[in-house]
Amino acid sequence: MTEINSVTTLTRDGDIAVITLNSPPVNALSAKVREGLFEGFKAAGASDAKAIVLICEGRTFIAGADISEFGGAMAGPSLFDVQDMMEGSPKPVIAAIHGTALGGGLEVALCAHYRVAVPSARVGLPEVALGLLPGAGGTQRLPRIVGVEAALDMVTSGRHVPAKQALAMGLVDELVEEGKLKEGALAFARKAVAEGKPLVKVRDNNAKLEAAKGHPEIFADFRKANARKFRGFMAPENNIKAVEAAVNSATFDEGLKAERQLFGELMMGAQSAAQRYYFFAERQANKIPDVPDDTPIRPIKKVGILGAGTMGGGIAMNFLNAGIPVTIVEVQEAALERGLGVIRKNYERSRSAKPEETEARMALLSGSLDFDKLADCDLIVEAVFERMDIKKDIFARLDKVAKPGAILASNTSYLDIDEIASVTGRPQDVIGLHFFSPANVMKLLEVIRGEKTAKDVIATSMKLAKQIGKIAVLAGVCPGFIGNRMLSQRQREAQKLVMEGAMPWDIDRVLYDFGFPMGPFAMSDLAGLDIGWVKENSKGETIRDVLCEMDRRGQKAGAGYYDYDENRNAKPSPVTEKIITDFIVKSGVNPRKISDEEILERCVYPMINEGAKILEEGKAIRPSDVDVVWVNGYGWPVYRGGPMHYADQVGPDKVLAKMQEFQAKMGDAFKPSVLLEKLVADGKKFSDIKA
Question: Is the N or C terminus of the chain more exposed, i.e. has fewer CB atoms within 10 Å?
Answer without folding.
Answer: N
